[in-house]
Amino acid sequence: MNILILGSGGREHAFAWKLAQSPLCDTLFVAPGNAGTAQVATNLPISYNDFPAVAKAIRDKEINLLIVGPEEPLVKGIVDFLREQPDLAGLGIVGPDAQGAQLEGSKDFSKQFMLRHGIPTATSQTFTVDTLQEGLDYLEKHALPVVIKADGLAAGKGVIIAETVAEAQAAMHDMLDGQKFGAAGSKVVVEQFLRGIELSVFVLTDGVNYKILPEAKDYKRIGEEDTGPNTGGMGAVSPVVFASKAFLQKVEDKVVKPTLAGLQKEGIHYQGFIFVGLMKVNGEPYVIEYNARMGDPETEVVLPRIQSDFAELMQATAKGELDQLTVLVSPQTAVTTMLVSGGYPGDYVTGKIISDLERLEDVTAFHAGTLEKNGHVLTNGGRVLAITAQANSLENAVRKSQEAARIVQFDGKQYRKDIGLDLIRYSD
């Protein structure tokens, strides 16, 4: 197969790294890619939101299989656009259409979907600028802390956990009246705060059949012991020590099966990944959010543990043949530590030379925000590299990932030194 991956982050480098290992993969392209994907594939200088340019590349490179990495082109309808091209009828696509991508594209849609299909989630109410006063009044009586979410895509910045009524009201005002997130904040979801421990479960579905991939836990905040502002993710661990077989069976029975049945009932043909963000509360799973794609940096710990041929899995997803395959998973633990630019998640400078990558041993450096220029690998984003280690214990995987994180150098490098330590200490 000739395969094209859309995206430029660590998730897409992990996809490319895994697909390049398959004998089914003839040629591999990534658009636009980064310095890491260039090591295992051919980068194409195309924006993944430029749908006509993507379609042209598919024709020019005789692509058989397309894998859409990020959420934005999915929500904007790239799958619908490509399906409307008569000459691309034979193209296999891993990624939902715009209707299916609403699971991530609209928090209100996903909450209503969960309610319709009896999927456990936090109680919530949705407000618009027309019902702003009603929303402010509602917050006066709401238990604290309270979660305020912009309805649409806000690059991971649209969720605020407010500790006071004033903070919650200000957040609602900023989103609805101040248009802080533009159209993404035209609706605001006010949600009950759940106390528990968070994890992510990943489902691969061909529209009818499904496979549950290894679970993971990521670390969102910039500072150690989960302090400071939220980021796109500072690290991840898989498997998750508190996700017992019994708990994961509850997730499958109470969340995964009703979600897929609900999509089918509503006539949504969903082919691709469903990321289920969960909170374990008193031993029970509650859905915090859906994403219509794999998580990042969770992909960088999930894919290394998958022993099956990933190209074969992707092909079966696109063809509706997932029931014919088995997903083999390594019992090893994977830990990734994200190296980020100084100042991230606020303002940061790019173009810093990255050195000592060649000194890394027995780990994989997935490139998240990098660029190759004049023989140097440069920083080209807030999140720069995800350093993934695998080992026969969580302690050893943490140690290997952290040691490698210390070796790689670039000006302003930051990383969390406590990724996975809470799970080493964890007791139910």
UniProtKB/TrEMBL annotation:
Whichever gene encodes this chain, its name is: purD
Looking at the record, the residues that make up the ATP-grasp domain are 111-319
Keyword Ligase carried by entry: yes
Similarity field: Belongs to the GARS family.
UniProt-listed Enzyme Commission number(s): 6.3.4.13
SUPFAM superfamilies attached to this UniProt entry: Glutathione synthetase ATP-binding domain-like, PreATP-grasp domain, Rudiment single hybrid motif
Q: According to its UniProt record, which reaction does this protein catalyse? A: 5-phospho-beta-D-ribosylamine + glycine + ATP = N(1)-(5-phospho-beta-D-ribosyl)glycinamide + ADP + phosphate + H(+)
Example of a GO biological process term: 'de novo' IMP biosynthetic process
User: Pathway it acts in?
Assistant: Purine metabolism; IMP biosynthesis via de novo pathway; N(1)-(5-phospho-D-ribosyl)glycinamide from 5-phospho-alpha-D-ribose 1-diphosphate: step 2/2
| Keywords annotated in UniProt | ATP-binding, Ligase, Nucleotide-binding, Purine biosynthesis
Q: Which PANTHER family match?
A: PHOSPHORIBOSYLAMINE--GLYCINE LIGASE (PTHR43472), PHOSPHORIBOSYLAMINE--GLYCINE LIGASE, CHLOROPLASTIC (PTHR43472:SF1)
Q: Could you state a single Gene Ontology molecular function term?
A: phosphoribosylamine-glycine ligase activity
Query: What sort of enzyme, by top EC class, is this?
Result: ligase
Know the name of this protein? Phosphoribosylamine--glycine ligase
| Organism from which the protein derives | Spirosoma linguale (strain ATCC 33905 / DSM 74 / LMG 10896 / Claus 1)
List the taxonomic lineage: Bacteria, Pseudomonadati, Bacteroidota, Cytophagia, Cytophagales
Q: Which domain of life is it from?
A: Bacteria
